[in-house]
Design brief:
With 122 residues, the chain is mostly helical. Helices cover 65% and strands 0% of the residues. The chain has three helices and no strands. The termini are far apart.
Length: 122
């Protein structure tokens, strides 16, 4: 239960901080009708390209551990697989179109899932 609770807490912290960065720095939201106007490369985005999804997945994993739920663990696996397909095939292509060379440079220096130890200075 403790490990699950720690995953949930870490995931929620990551989600809240990244959403706040979208609003403050990106000048937009998660909503497709109000996307960010600026590329966000601050805070956790200096370590990994998808910290918001990492936060969501951490919450799902933590919940499954906290309540010892196999169906929730299976849903975590499905959500992980879905994002591993969706992000490179759709989201990243959209970011290349919206932000061009700025995103491509970021893409080359910061990994999709595995965080950098040292933050990228860009």
């Amino acid at each position: 239960m403790v490990v699950g609770g720690l995953f949930v807490l870490a995931g929620l912290t990551l989600m809240v901080s990244t959403i706040a960065l979208f609003v403050r720095v990106g000048k937009g939201t998660l909503a497709p009708w109000d996307p960010t106007r600026k590329l966000v490369i601050r805070g956790p985005y200096r370590h990994v390209r998808n910290p918001m999804i990492s936060g969501v997945l951490a919450v799902l994993l933590g919940e499954s551990l906290f309540i010892d739920s196999l169906p929730l663990l299976e849903f975590f696996g499905f959500a992980t697989l879905l994002n591993m397909i969706y992000i490179p095939l759709s989201e990243e292509l959209g970011l290349i179109k919206r932000f061009g060379e700025e995103y491509l440079t970021y893409f080359q220096h910061v990994r999709r899932w595995l965080p950098r130890i040292k933050p990228w200075q860009g």
